[in-house]
Amino acid sequence: MPLPDEPNPVCVLSATARIVICGQAPGIRVHNTGLPFNDPSGVRLRDWLGVDRETFYDPDKFAIVPMGFCFPGYDAHGSDLPPRRECRETWHDRVFHSMPQIELVLTIGQYAQAYHLGSRRRASMTETVLNWRDYFEPESGPSILPLPHPSWRNSSWLKKNPWFAHDVLPLLQEKVRILTS
């Protein structure tokens, strides 16, 4: 099935960044501007990370590799479709192999968590994020921190799960400060 719009891959690869942000796929605003997280979700994500816009878009500090590089289109209800599988199948192993310096992988949403955590992922996104400690201090490889999507649609999830703001975000901000200094 072809993409609904012309392909416009939106990702940031880096040979120096120690943090990679792994989301789902660009929305239409990001597709049109070519700038990842150039939307209200990006504002919330930068707040979670404790960084300004300039730092966030510095490829020496952050790589950004969504599960789908192009806008996948809308479903019958007007919601974004899931990331296209062929993008992950074609590119992701190669992309991550080319960035061995990565020390922290931020997995945003279920598709990124499924790829990066595999069978270690829990039954729900909430359970996966709640058990973040299981992935954050690995015996080998980079730390992985599962996050909910920073979309406004998840505002009720954030209210129902105050532990995320109290327990996860301070640790995330400290780790980001260390790895971007």
Automatic annotation (TrEMBL):
SUPFAM superfamilies: Uracil-DNA glycosylase-like. InterPro entries: HI_0220.2, Uracil-DNA_glycosylase-like, Uracil-DNA_glycosylase-like_sf. Residues 10-173 form the Uracil-DNA glycosylase-like domain. It comes from the Bacteria. This is Uracil-DNA glycosylase. It comes from Phyllobacterium trifolii.
